[in-house]
From TrEMBL:
The chain crosses the membrane at residues 57-78, 90-108, 120-141, 148-171, 198-220, 248-277, 289-308, 320-339. GO terms for biological process: siderophore-iron import into cell. Keywords: Cell membrane, Membrane, Transmembrane, Transmembrane helix, Transport. One of its GO terms (cellular component) is plasma membrane. Belongs to the binding-protein-dependent transport system permease family. FecCD subfamily. Pfam families: FecCD. It is found in: Cell membrane. This is Iron complex transport system permease protein. Its main location: membrane.
């Protein structure tokens, strides 16, 4: 049995285990027998536990599952675009652009209807527009400089610029015609959260993320393998680099926008999951790296979500932490290690 197959089986078992833990753990623990009863009989026997399981634990688990898959795939596509293992939707500003788009959508709906808009597709559209604007700026900088350090700093600065405008819009929402108090809730959302999702939002996420996962594995992996070897080689085997890179940018932007629209920015998952996939598989083939990355993404994101919950590692009376806290602790050391490991940072 190939190493890749063994890794897929192992990661699938780990993912199943963390999904089960996610359904069980929280302020009010839910037992495995309760979960089995619900699956077999449609109820645990207690209405309160039924509602907790279906309306809260299952939604946040499914949301983390899809968000982890989507953002890890966006990360590997972005790394292929820039040929840089540190490229990440969070670090390169794509998430900040999407957040700015969602906040603009919120202010627009507040000013027109006095109610914060919740249309799933409209939120994704505005998030996508924000992401596209920011990524267009970052890619324009990438064409000017080939230095990875300069590109990373530029991405971080563009991200900071978008975050600055987002903060201004939130705190001046009342002046611009919206309700500032209603917008202030976006601040905690802006640090990442999967605990306020609804099933229709998860349906939209699945509708947008799953087809792109399949398309990327089937239609883009070989071209991504060739792209790693350089422009000259990719062109010599018939790849239209302009069209290919537009696909990478378009899909990574849509995936990032979809995740951010519903969960807020998810930090570092898109960077370190592809890196870990390369390390454990010892192969650069993208038809193997993509499946491994989209298994690792939800594993890490669900674990991070579990760690933020009151009643697990925090006191039951504590406030839930944003996902940025555990994800930064996981991701920052890997980013520092990769940055100092090589002077070239090539893939």
């Amino acid at each position: 049995m190939k190493k890749f197959t063994k890794l897929c089986i192992l990661l699938s078992f780990i993912l199943f285990f963390v999904v089960l833990l996610s359904l069980m753990l929280g302020t009010l623990p839910i037992s495995i027998s309760d979960i089995l009863n619900y699956l077999l009989n449609g109820t645990t026997g207690t209405r309160t536990i039924d509602l907790l399981l279906v309306k809260m634990r299952a939604t946040r688990t499914a949301g983390a599952l899809l968000a982890g898959m989507g953002i890890s795939l966006a990360g590997i596509l972005m790394q292929s675009y820039f040929r840089n293992p540190l490229a990440d939707p969070y670090l390169m500003g794509a998430s900040s652009g999407a957040t700015l788009g969602v906040v603009m959508y919120g202010i627009l709906t507040l000013s027109l209807t006095s109610t914060l808009g919740t249309s799933s597709f409209s939120m994704v559209l505005f998030a996508y527009l924000g992401t596209l604007v920011v990524m267009s700026l970052v890619t324009a900088i990438a064409k000017i400089t080939r230095q990875v350090s300069t590109l990373l700093i530029s991405g971080i600065m563009v991200s900071a610029l978008a975050s600055g405008f987002t903060t201004i819009l939130i705190y001046t929402g009342d002046i611009l015609g919206g309700d500032g108090e209603k917008l202030h809730g976006i601040i905690s959302w802006g640090m990442g959260a999967v605990n306020n999702l609804y099933w229709h939002q998860i349906g939209v996420m699945a509708l947008l993320i799953i087809p792109f996962m399949i398309f990327s594995i089937l239609a883009l992996s070989k071209d991504m393998d060739a792209n790693v070897l350089g422009d000259n080689y990719a062109t010599s085997i018939g790849i239209n680099l302009k069209t290919f890179k537009r696909k990478l940018l378009l899909i990574s932007s849509i995936l990032t926008a979809t995740v951010v629209a519903f969960t807020g920015p998810i930090a570092f998952i898109g960077m370190f999951c592809p890196i870990i996939a390369r390390m454990i598989n010892k192969s650069a083939k993208h038809n193997e790296l993509i499946p491994l990355s989209i298994l690792l993404g939800p594993i890490f994101l669900i674990i991070a979500d579990i760690l933020t919950r009151p009643g697990v590692f925090l006191s039951a009376n504590a406030n839930a932490l944003p996902l940025l806290c555990p994800l930064s602790i996981m991701g920052a050391p890997i980013a520092i290690y990769m940055y100092t490991k090589s002077k070239n940072f090539t893939m």
